[in-house]
């Protein structure tokens, strides 16, 4: 009877990162994945002949460079191609572009407001200051503020020292960042609606909040963190689609001797005498191990994969109270030619970046009101990219793949499950919006994949279709993520860990949860973590 | 000319508390009130012949015990006892109401047994957590830049109080601190009437819906208040809120403070960075060593001091204080007491709340984000003349209601919007008290724009600045100047715009006075 | 509830504001703009050695750094200052606004005069330094390194004044060097001899006018000329023709930078970090910490940062001081660390050179007080001189000296000398 050192449930990016680090520490690691392919929400799938779809996550932005280095991802084929621009189309036939060049950026803003153009530097300074404060926390395990253990006290002290190291003005700014809405925050810097919308979108992507909800200023930081160390290409496409990230991870894992079983859905975790002993697969097969790491979200892990009797009531209550409402969907489209946007000059770099149609904070917020009422947004917010403008490998010659990330889509429609008709209505709201800005768009569509929270949950296993495996509000961040008392990748069951985005520091294709969990597991096993790079310095 | 050491601008309850506290400490104090009488939005006013009501604040729920004690308010005629506590009634269109008796639902009626026990647990928890925060109310916010030993020690006390909660309780406390109220209610309660009431209470007076993160803080703020020594209790003062003002005024005058009404201040005179006096609208100049502004902080800095005497960064911060109110006040003169469906006599003497569910409150909130008013507004209603017949002619009745959401900056303008909003409010009332419309003798609806003009409250906001997490404690009224002093030497702030915020608590006024005494300012 | 906002784009727009905005879209094709003088500069740019000055491509040098420098000191040098940020501040309260914003007393600045000034945030940290031109009792031009429109507009709340950014609309030239006066006179600017240092006046040019001030960034006799962008080329030609026999030469920034260092002048974001760009809390500087304390006028009434500056002075919270150093030897000490007694780190050199005029090795450095303030002895700089892929480390004695490092009587002589 084979007993693995560790079994990782789920071959998403965090599961694979975790597996790589454990395998490289000398453990004998098995990854079990229910789909016939690995990748979780970071996949590339050929859903139409010749077209590769990044059908869930679509942008490589937050992935920690320390992990890329440790796991040698470039060696295993990962190439990231940076966005060259981005834009918000305006209803008056114009657009506001984001250019990489600082002066072009300023001149573009000055087309709308000279004041806003000159306000950008102060805004960027304040955001940068906050990112520098928070970024080092990404690669650390959050302390338990109620604990008196030396390690927790040490981490608390670290937090306290970092905070005390700020000037009084910065402390006030930090508190504001954690509690303000992105809309109100931006009001203090900018006067032009489209410019505010242009920044506000980073405060809502992936959340079940609107730009006017307190706490969204922090979400913006979460999305900006990837850029903080100045690594060029922080926001970009993975060549070959997002699957290239997990493909490289899987290759790295296998190269170090790891084993992956696909098509192997876990029915439940085997627990004996309060300790994880293995997993039982859907077919009844039992696979044994010394420890289990779940890449599934906290609800799926503890409410579906572990029997209730193994868990204390207070823990179960907190897991049930974990907020994991899905808020987004995807519409992935194969096109027979590059769509035209009459507002946009043909040689604009914006085609090679992210495009949006929501030109005011109010439209964004109204889209959220629909979500609150249990409907998909009639006038949705789209984060639209055409990766084939930079990566021709994803479509046949001359043809294009387009990814539209769509907010908002509720986990249930008016309190009931999504139907196919709902899904079509949702897709139509997206296509109609694009077609408003791109005449003839419908005629270019060759194939389309529509993913509501229902499809995302069914295929990827993200509960309620929440892409961050849990909302990014203060009650679910740091020592509260996923639940108070268990913010350290452990669980009440001995030898059972979690390593997905439900844990600190949260979602996005970042890899930090998987890495941090590995560090804590290795610490528990009293094994060396010398193969893990420490977090990059922020000086 | 009599000379005064201290001039207090604004005779609202906070100004009076500051004046009384300073006078009791031996200062010669002059209070300058712009209106014809003191009390601001806590006055009792006649709004129709023979009908009187509390101007804006109509319930006593958070007058700070230190204020009562320091100013001996009981001796000056303010007496509230347990017998005066009034219940909160969550009205329902479809059935009987649910009633929170005693101090914020010590007893809950109209709910299922399981809901009652869930409520008991939640209520205890809320009061425990609010109690942890309570000491902050009567303290100066910590000065982060140069924290004194005393300040560090008091923060340490809070940490200790937290520890006393016990490990799991403390964990829950830290989790829910900045949470939205709707989610917490969904976690613990089932009855949408009860949840609606709590969602309403958490968001009353703020630009938040129950689904907005941090909205739970509003409930803590409410429950950190106490009446007659009991947390969460509320009472309708005999004679309206004006009676509370009268007691504070008596305390101030008893200690020797001089009060001048109809004396609006036009300017604070600043010489070489120091406030040395004020100029009244009529040109009269009054000098004093200490000037205390108990009016709105933005009005103080931008209008009375003026941008030329303050730094641009501070002016920016002051202009960025969000203070656009969403609450309107409805005063109805009724020819007979209304009958709210299913509510008993005791209930009618309490606080009647129309907020059928958290979702309803949230839906009512939505339009105000875009400068539109709620078509199905939520409100809290009192009928003060039932317990105090002096407020209305014989057999008639006064209805006083605070109604949300009515955004200060209504897109279509309040001239056009007010009749429409009144219609929406009356339609809501009619649904819960059939026939009430026909008994209206006179209706007075004060939109935030009206409240701004009448009570000199910018934005018509009774907190003088949104009471949200980013405008609390060290950020209230602005970061860097949260401790009642200002960059202008000799000028202090004492109004609701300062920590801890609004409501008839007197805490900002008291804290400011303590600061002035400590600074020998 | 009915949606009150449209979600569709308008089909065609007739709005002139929108069409003007759309017409400006094409800027993305040219990341570095040319100034109004660009055709002339391009024609002279033999080194093709450019840098980015606030979004413009500006020359490091045009043909020979050394000779360009000597054009400043021995002939007349023409330097394009058009990319400098310029604001027009106009209205009955313009003086009051500038008094509130800047450190010096603007009431003392008469119309037709210029002064060098600086401005601070609430904490007394310097936002920028620059020159303020009083064009009339109610009209000013503020020239600066960084951009400040939101700060100026917010500061203007409550003042009867308009603030407009006019960087692109106004072209600027610095004409510096001993023969600069003669060049202007020969170019026909009658009356220019009357301009004393920091005076300004308007002169007719090409059917319009040019504002000439006797100012500069070189510590030499020199002038600055401002003209509307459409008359820039004719002004350039007028000067070049008139100056031919006086040795007029167009120059790039490298030469100018040397001259400014000899003159002991500082550059924002080179010798100190401006407050709005400082990411790290300890980097911003108060005026007293960068040698601009002389500007602070505590008698004039309130100005931004007054309270913080005063408090720092009273409570002795000033932590840095900016000094001129004379360093032994002749090896430039650019970005060298300054030591006390060869061991204790006390500061950093921000600019350094061998001065051809002073024949001394000079530097500007920021030191931590009391070093450079009350302790000025036993200071050293460690120079890492890279020579053929090896650092030659030199520990050289540094002496705190007064700035400017050179003093030229011709700069202030009246009437200006005719060389």
UniProtKB/TrEMBL annotation, chain A:
Residues 15-522 form the Amine oxidase domain. It comes from the Bacteria. InterPro entries: Amino_oxidase, FAD/NAD-bd_sf. PANTHER family: PHYTOENE DEHYDROGENASE, PYRIDINE NUCLEOTIDE-DISULFIDE OXIDOREDUCTASE DOMAIN-CONTAINING PROTEIN 2. Interacts with COX5B; this interaction may contribute to localize PYROXD2 to the inner face of the inner mitochondrial membrane. Probable oxidoreductase that may play a role as regulator of mitochondrial function. This is Pyridine nucleotide-disulfide oxidoreductase domain-containing protein 2. It comes from Mesorhizobium qingshengii. The lineage of its organism: Bacteria, Pseudomonadati, Pseudomonadota, Alphaproteobacteria, Hyphomicrobiales.
UniProtKB/TrEMBL annotation, chain B:
InterPro entries: Amino_oxidase, FAD/NAD-bd_sf. Pfam families: Amino_oxidase. PANTHER family: PHYTOENE DEHYDROGENASE (PTHR10668), PYRIDINE NUCLEOTIDE-DISULFIDE OXIDOREDUCTASE DOMAIN-CONTAINING PROTEIN 2 (PTHR10668:SF103). Interacts with COX5B; this interaction may contribute to localize PYROXD2 to the inner face of the inner mitochondrial membrane. It comes from Mesorhizobium qingshengii. This is Pyridine nucleotide-disulfide oxidoreductase domain-containing protein 2. Residues 15-517 form the Amine oxidase domain. Probable oxidoreductase that may play a role as regulator of mitochondrial function. Signal peptide: none annotated. It comes from the Bacteria.
Automatic annotation (TrEMBL), chain C:
It comes from the Bacteria. Pfam families: GCV_T, GCV_T_C. SUPFAM superfamilies: Aminomethyltransferase beta-barrel domain (SSF101790), Folate-binding domain (SSF103025). InterPro entries: GcvT/YgfZ/DmdA, GcvT/YgfZ_C, GcvT_C, GCVT_N, TrmE/GcvT-like. Transmembrane segments: none annotated. Gene3D superfamilies: Probable tRNA modification gtpase trme, domain 1 (3.30.1360.120). This is Aminomethyltransferase family protein. It comes from Mesorhizobium qingshengii.
């Amino acid at each position: 009877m084979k007993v693995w050192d560790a079994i990782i449930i789920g071959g998403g990016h965090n599961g694979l990162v975790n597996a790589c680090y454990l395998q490289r520490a000398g453990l004998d690691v098995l990854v079990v994945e229910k789909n016939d392919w690995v990748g979780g929400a970071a996949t590339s799938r050929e859903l139409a002949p010749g077209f590769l779809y990044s059908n869930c996550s679509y942008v490589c932005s937050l992935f920690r460079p320390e992990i890329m280095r440790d796991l040698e991802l470039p060696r295993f084929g990962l190439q990231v191609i940076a966005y060259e621009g981005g834009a918000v189309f305006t209803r008056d036939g114009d657009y506001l572009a984001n250019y990489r060049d600082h002066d072009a950026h300023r001149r573009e803003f000055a087309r709308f407001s000279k004041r806003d153009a000159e306000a950008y530097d102060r805004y960027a300074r304040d955001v940068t200051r906050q990112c520098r404060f928070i970024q080092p926390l990404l690669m650390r395990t959050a302390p338990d503020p109620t604990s008196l253990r030396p390690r927790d006290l040490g981490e608390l002290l670290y937090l306290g020292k970092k905070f005390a190291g700020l000037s009084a003005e910065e402390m006030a700014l930090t508190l504001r960042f954690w509690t303000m809405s992105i809309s109100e925050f931006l009001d203090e810097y900018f006067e032009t609606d489209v410019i505010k919308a242009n920044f506000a979108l980073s405060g809502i992507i992936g959340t079940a909040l609107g730009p006017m909800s307190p706490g969204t200023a922090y979400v913006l930081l979460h999305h900006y963190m990837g850029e903080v160390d100045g690594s060029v290409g922080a926001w970009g496409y993975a060549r070959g689609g997002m699957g290239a990230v997990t493909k490289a991870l899987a290759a790295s894992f296998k190269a170090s001797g790891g084993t992956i079983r696909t098509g192997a859905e876990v029915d439940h975790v085997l627990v004996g005498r309060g300790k994880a002993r293995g997993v039982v697969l859907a077919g009844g097969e039992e696979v044994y191990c010394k420890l289990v790491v779940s890449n599934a979200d906290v609800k799926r892990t503890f409410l579906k994969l572990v029997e209730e009797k193994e868990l204390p009531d207070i823990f179960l209550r907190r897991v049930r109270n974990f907020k994991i409402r899905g808020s987004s969907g995807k519409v992935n489209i194969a096109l027979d030619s590059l769509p035209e946007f009459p507002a946009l000059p043909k040689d604009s770099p914006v085609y090679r970046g992210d495009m949006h149609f929501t030109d005011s904070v109010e439209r964004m917020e109204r889209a959220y009101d629909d979500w609150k009422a249990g409907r998909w947004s009639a006038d949705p917010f789209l984060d639209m990219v055409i990766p084939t403008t930079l990566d021709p490998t994803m479509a046949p010659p001359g043809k294009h793949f387009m990814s539209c990330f769509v907010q908002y889509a509720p986990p249930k429609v008016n309190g009931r499950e999504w139907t196919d008709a709902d899904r079509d209505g949702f897709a139509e709201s997206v296509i109609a919006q694009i077609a408003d800005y791109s005449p003839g768009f419908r005629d270019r569509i060759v194939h389309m994949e529509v993913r509501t929270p229902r499809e995302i949950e069914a295929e990827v296993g993200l509960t309620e279709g929440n892409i961050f495996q849990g909302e990014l509000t203060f009650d679910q961040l740091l020592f509260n993520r996923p639940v108070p008392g268990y913010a350290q990748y452990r669980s009440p069951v001995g030898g059972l860990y979690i390593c997905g985005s439900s844990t600190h520091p949260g979602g996005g294709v970042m890899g930090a949860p998987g890495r941090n969990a590995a560090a804590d597991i290795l610490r528990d096993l009293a094994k060396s973590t010398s193969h893990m790079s420490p977090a990059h310095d922020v000086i | 000319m009599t000379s005064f050491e201290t001039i207090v601008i604004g005779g609202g309850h906070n100004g009076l508390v500051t004046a009384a506290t300073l006078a009791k400490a031996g200062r010669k104090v002059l209070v300058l009130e712009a209106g014809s009488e003191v009390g601001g939005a806590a006055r009792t006013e006649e709004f129709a012949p023979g009908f009187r009501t509390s101007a804006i604040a109509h319930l006593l729920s958070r007058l700070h015990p230190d204020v009562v004690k320091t100013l001996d308010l009981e001796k000056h005629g303010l007496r509230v006892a347990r017998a005066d506590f009034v219940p909160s009634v969550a009205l329902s269109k479809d059935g009987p109401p649910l009633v929170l008796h005693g101090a914020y639902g010590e007893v809950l009626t109209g709910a299922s047994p399981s809901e009652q026990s869930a409520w008991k647990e939640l209520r205890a928890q809320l009061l425990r957590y609010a109690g942890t925060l309570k000491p902050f109310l009567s303290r100066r916010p910590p000065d982060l830049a140069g924290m004194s030993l005393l300040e560090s020690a008091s923060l340490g006390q809070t940490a200790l109080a937290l520890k006393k909660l016990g490990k799991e309780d403390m964990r829950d406390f830290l989790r829910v601190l900045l949470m939205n109220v709707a989610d917490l209610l969904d976690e613990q309660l089932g009855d949408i009437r009860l949840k609606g009431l709590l969602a309403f209470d958490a968001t009353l007076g703020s630009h938040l819906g129950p689904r907005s993160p941090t909205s739970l803080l509003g409930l803590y703020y409410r429950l950190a208040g106490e009446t007659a020594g009991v947390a969460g209790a509320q009472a309708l003062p005999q004679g309206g809120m004006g009676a509370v003002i009268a007691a504070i005024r008596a305390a101030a005058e008893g200690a020797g403070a001089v009060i001048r009404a109809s004396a609006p201040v036009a300017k604070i005179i600043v010489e070489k960075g120091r406030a040395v006096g004020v100029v009244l609208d009529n040109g009269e100049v009054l000098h004093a060593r200490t000037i205390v502004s108990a009016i709105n902080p933005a009005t103080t800095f931008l209008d009375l001091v003026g941008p030329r005497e303050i730094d641009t960064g501070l002016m920016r911060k002051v202009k960025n204080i969000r203070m656009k109110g969403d609450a309107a006040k409805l005063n109805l003169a009724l020819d007979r007491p209304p009958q709210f469906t299913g509510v008993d006599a005791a209930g009618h003497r309490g606080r009647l709340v129309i907020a059928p569910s958290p979702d309803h409150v949230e839906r009512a909130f939505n339009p105000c984000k875009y400068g539109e008013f709620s078509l199905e507004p939520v409100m809290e209603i009192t009928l003060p003349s039932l317990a105090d017949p002096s407020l209305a002619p014989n057999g008639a009745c006064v209805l006083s209601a605070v109604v949300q959401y009515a955004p200060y900056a209504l897109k279509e303008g309040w001239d056009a919007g007010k009749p429409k909003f009144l219609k929406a409010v009356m339609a809501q009332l009619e649904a819960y008290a059939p026939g009430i419309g026909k008994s209206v003798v006179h209706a007075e609806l004060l939109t935030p724009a009206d409240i701004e003009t009448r009570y000199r409250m910018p934005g018509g906001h009774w907190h003088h600045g949104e009471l949200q997490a980013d405008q609390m404690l060290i950020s209230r009224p602005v970061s860097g100047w949260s401790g009642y002093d200002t960059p202008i030497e000799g000028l202090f702030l004492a109004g609701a715009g300062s920590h801890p915020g609004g409501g008839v608590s007197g805490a900002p006024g008291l804290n400011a006075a303590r600061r002035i005494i400590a600074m020998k300012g | 509830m009915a949606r009150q906002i449209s979600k569709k784009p308008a089909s065609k727009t007739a709005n002139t504001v929108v069409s003007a905005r759309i017409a400006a879209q094409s800027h993305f094709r040219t990341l570095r703009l040319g100034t109004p003088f660009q055709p002339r500069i391009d024609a002279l740019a033999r080194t093709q050695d450019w840098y980015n000055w606030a979004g413009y491509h500006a020359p490091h040098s045009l043909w020979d750094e050394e000779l360009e420098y000597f054009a400043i000191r021995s002939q007349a040098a023409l330097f394009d200052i058009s990319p400098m940020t310029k604001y027009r501040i106009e209205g009955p309260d313009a003086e009051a606004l500038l008094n509130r914003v800047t450190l010096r007393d603007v009431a003392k600045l008469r119309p037709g005069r210029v002064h060098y000034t600086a401005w601070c945030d609430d904490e007394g940290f310097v936002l920028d330094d620059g020159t303020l031109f009083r064009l009339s009792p109610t009209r000013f031009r503020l020239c600066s390194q960084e951009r400040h429109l939101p700060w100026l507009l917010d500061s203007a709340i409550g003042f009867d004044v308009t603030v407009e950014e006019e960087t692109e609309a106004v072209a600027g030239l610095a004409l510096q060097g001993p023969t600069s006066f003669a060049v202007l006179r020969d170019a026909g600017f009658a009356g220019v001899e009357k301009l004393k240092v920091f005076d300004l006046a308007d002169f007719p040019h090409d059917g319009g006018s040019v504002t000439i001030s006797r100012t500069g960034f070189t510590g030499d006799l020199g002038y600055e000329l401002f003209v509307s962008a459409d008359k820039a080329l004719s002004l350039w030609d007028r000067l070049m023709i008139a100056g031919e026999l006086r040795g007029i030469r167009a120059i790039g920034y490298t030469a100018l930078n040397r001259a400014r260092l000899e003159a002991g002048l500082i550059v924002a974001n080179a010798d100190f970090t401006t407050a709005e760009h400082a990411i790290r809390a300890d980097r911003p500087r108060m005026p007293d910490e960068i040698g601009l304390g002389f500007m602070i006028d505590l008698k004039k009434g309130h100005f931004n940062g007054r309270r913080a500056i005063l408090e720092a002075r009273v409570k002795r919270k000033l932590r840095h001081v900016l000094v001129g150093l004379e360093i032994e030897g002749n090896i430039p000490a650019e970005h060298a660390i300054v030591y006390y007694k060869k061991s204790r780190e006390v500061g950093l050199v921000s600019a350094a050179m061998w001065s051809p005029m002073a024949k001394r090795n000079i530097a500007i450095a920021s030191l931590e007080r009391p070093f450079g303030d009350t302790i000025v002895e036993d200071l050293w700089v460690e120079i890492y001189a890279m020579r053929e892929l090896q650092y030659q480390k030199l520990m050289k004695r540094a002496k705190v000296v007064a700035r400017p490092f050179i003093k030229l009587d011709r700069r202030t002589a009246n009437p200006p000398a005719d060389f």
